[in-house]
Structure formats: structure tokens, C-alpha cells
């Protein structure tokens, strides 16, 4: 893809004997697919789970056309494959995080499970696109922990959602329209858990992808390198195609704002829509209570106006 620049780096860190992260990419005529994964379950099984996730997701798009539905199917295939492997006694506890950027120029789709992250640098501002599926992150969203407390909490590495842990995957989907020069960072928590967002922003702003990826990994190691470190930096072209896609994105996403997506329940429906709170309808009990209230009020009024 002309004008598309990217780089990927991974390192075991300074405290781990083995690298259980995996990353990879697939360039396509419509853009590309980029994946990072952070395995868990032991030195051998974690490495295998992460590798299976990256291989399966990338392999799915060697034939599939890009869409939110295809991205979800790729994650479901990876989940099924890892969950099957995890049924073996020697692989108990196997699982992995996975974060994937699908560039379908001029659009981007992001799928996410676990606490590996996706960031977007646009106009000099850095935005975290994903929400960590972790115990501490959920407590931060509930207001029970501050971000500073979460960063050093003893349970900061407890993951609440991972590929392979359950028969069915729970995947977050995002969509947005790209702006020229948008820069994405995909990384495992060995990077995001060590470096502050302002450091990530400065590196991404001031260096091209190859240099940015190298510097980020080096900085994480300079700050102790307590975990495996993986990073993919992707910068989209300055000139983007102005084409449309057969799948539908919400208006906000089509205008450039990141929007969480969900698939329609019926295959023939448009595959994406804005996540909104459901408005409960009136059940028969509600109708009965309203009628009873009307009868009571009418009886009171009748007694009041009766001579």
C-alpha cells in the first residue's frame, strides 16, 4: 500500500526468561492487518496461545474481505482454536490477549480482548481506543481506584477476558474514518504499563514508525523492563482513497470519531450500529399497574365531586 509506513518490535524485557508476546502483520490491497498478543498460562502455553491468535487472525484475512463481521469471525476462530488446545491437561490456563488493527482505507476497524492496547495519535493528541479487560481497569471505571493506584496495584495483571478462556469470545469492536497521517500504536502491557501516555505521545509525534517502535521498546527497558514488550506503530498515508464500503458505519465513525460497534443479530441487517442503552418497553404488569392507578384516581375524584 503506497504511503503506508509501519514497524514492529518485540523484546522479552529484563525480568522474564522468555518472550510470551507475539505480533504480526498482513499487507493487503485494501490496507493491512496488524496484531499484537500477550500469552498467559505459563512459559510454554502462553507463547503458544499468543502465536495461535496472531496466526489465526492474519490467516483469516488471506481470503476474507474486510468488514466488522469478518474481524469478529477471525477472533472467534482464534478463540475456538486456543480453547480447544487449552482442554489438554498440560495446557490448562492457556489464554492470550489480542488487539488487532484492520486498515480498510479510508476506514479503520479495531478488535480487542484483554489488556493489550490500541492508541491513536491524531493532530498531536493521543487517544486510547481500547478499554482494558482487567480487574483494576474495571475498578477504575467504577471509581473505586484511581489510575495511579491501578498502575501499582498487586492485582494489576489479573485479566478478566482473554482468548481461549471460554468457549465463546467477548470481543470489543471499534470503527472510525481515517484522517491523513493518523498514527496507531498497538502494544502489550509490558509497554503501556511502564510508560506514561505523555511519553508515548512525544515519541509517536517526533519519530517515524521504525524509530518510534525502537525507542518505545528501549524506554520500557530503561524503566525496568518488568514484562515482555511488544509494539506496532502504523502511520496511514497522507493521501487516502475516497471510496465507500459495503458495510455500514455509524455517522460518528464515518466522520472520524472512534465509535464502539456491535454486529446486528440478523445476517441480512447492517452489521454495525452505535451502542446505545436499551430502552425497556412496557410489559403487561406495567400496563396493569397504570390501569389500576387510573381506576383509583377516578374513584377518588368521583367521591370528591359527588354531592
Automatic annotation (TrEMBL):
Q: Does the keyword Phosphoprotein apply?
A: no
Please give the start and end residues of each transmembrane region.
287-305
> Which key words are in the record?
Membrane, Transmembrane, Transmembrane helix
Q: Which stretches make up the PPM-type phosphatase domain?
A: 5-236
Mind listing the GO molecular function terms for this protein?
protein serine/threonine phosphatase activity
UniProt lineage? Bacteria, Thermotogati, Deinococcota, Deinococci, Thermales
User: Which SMART domains does UniProt cross-reference here?
Assistant: PP2C_SIG (SM00331), PP2Cc (SM00332)
Protein's name in the database: Protein phosphatase
Q: Does the keyword Kinase apply?
A: no
Enumerate the InterPro entries for this protein: PP2C, PPM-type-like_dom_sf, PPM-type_phosphatase-like_dom
Q: Domain of life of the organism in this record? A: Bacteria
Q: Sorted alphabetically, which PANTHER family does this protein's record hold?
A: PROTEIN PHOSPHATASE (PTHR47992)
Amino acid at each position: 500500500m503506497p504511503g503506508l509506513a509501519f514497524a514492529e518490535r518485540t523484546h522479552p524485557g529484563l525480568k522474564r526468561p522468555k518472550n510470551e508476546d507475539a505480533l504480526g502483520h498482513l499487507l493487503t490491497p485494501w490496507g493491512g492487518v496488524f496484531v499484537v498478543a500477550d500469552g498467559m498460562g505459563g512459559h510454554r502455553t502462553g507463547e503458544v496461545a499468543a502465536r495461535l491468535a496472531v496466526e489465526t487472525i492474519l490467516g483469516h484475512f488471506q481470503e476474507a474481505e474486510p468488514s466488522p463481521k469478518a474481524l469478529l469471525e477471525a477472533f472467534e476462530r482464534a478463540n475456538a482454536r486456543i480453547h480447544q488446545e487449552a482442554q489438554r491437561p498440560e495446557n490448562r490456563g492457556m489464554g492470550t490477549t489480542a488487539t488487532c488493527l484492520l486498515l480498510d482505507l479510508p476506514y479503520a476497524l479495531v478488535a480487542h480482548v484483554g489488556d493489550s492496547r490500541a492508541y491513536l495519535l491524531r493532530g498531536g493528541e493521543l487517544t486510547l481506543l481500547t478499554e482494558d479487560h482487567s480487574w483494576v481497569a474495571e475498578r477504575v471505571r467504577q471509581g473505586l481506584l484511581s489510575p495511579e493506584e491501578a498502575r501499582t496495584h498487586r492485582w494489576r495483571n489479573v485479566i478478566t477476558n482473554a482468548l481461549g478462556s471460554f468457549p465463546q469470545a467477548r470481543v470489543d469492536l471499534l470503527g472510525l474514518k481515517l484522517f491523513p497521517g493518523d498514527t496507531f500504536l498497538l502494544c502489550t502491557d509490558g509497554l503501556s504499563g511502564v510508560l506514561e501516555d505523555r511519553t508515548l505521545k512525544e515519541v509517536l509525534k517526533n519519530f517515524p514508525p521504525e524509530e518510534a517502535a525502537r525507542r518505545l521498546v528501549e524506554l520500557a527497558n530503561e524503566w525496568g523492563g518488568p514484562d515482555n514488550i511488544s509494539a506496532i506503530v502504523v502511520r496511514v498515508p497522507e493521501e487516502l482513497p475516497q471510496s465507500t464500503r459495503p458495510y455500514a458505519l455509524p455517522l460518528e465513525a464515518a466522520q472520524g470519531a472512534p465509535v464502539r460497534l456491535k454486529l446486528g443479530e440478523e445476517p441480512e441487517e447492517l452489521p454495525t450500529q452505535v451502542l446505545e442503552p436499551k430502552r425497556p418497553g412496557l410489559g403487561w404488569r406495567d400496563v396493569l399497574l397504570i390501569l389500576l392507578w387510573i381506576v383509583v384516581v377516578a374513584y377518588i375524584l368521583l367521591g370528591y365531586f359527588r354531592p
